[in-house]
Amino acid sequence: MTLQLDHTPALAAFDDGTWYPICRLEDLELCWGEAALIQGRQVALFRVDSATVFAVSHRDPVSGSQVMARGIVGSRGQRFTITSPLHKEVYFLDSGEPAAGSGTALRSFPTRVINGMVEVRV
Whole-prediction pTM value? Predict the structure, then answer.
């Protein structure tokens, strides 16, 4: 049986459609960030429930530091968020949009889980 769960934000024009296997789903702790280097990009991964994983840039859009995997996972309404550990800006994990409604967005990447393997498209 193949289990496929997708999270697909709007894609940038340079996305070549390649999915990269990163880790097993059970390797990610709930509501805890992990950083991964994918095709030269630092990406922060967040497992928010038994089968949902989000991927965003590890680079804080305000400070430029590679710290987002150390942010605080939370929610606003029904949407999961990540709070920057440096300046406490809050971003929606599903889109990278700032929760405040204005400011610089955090880049988000499509994710999926296939047979227990987390894959990210960068």
Answer: 0.86
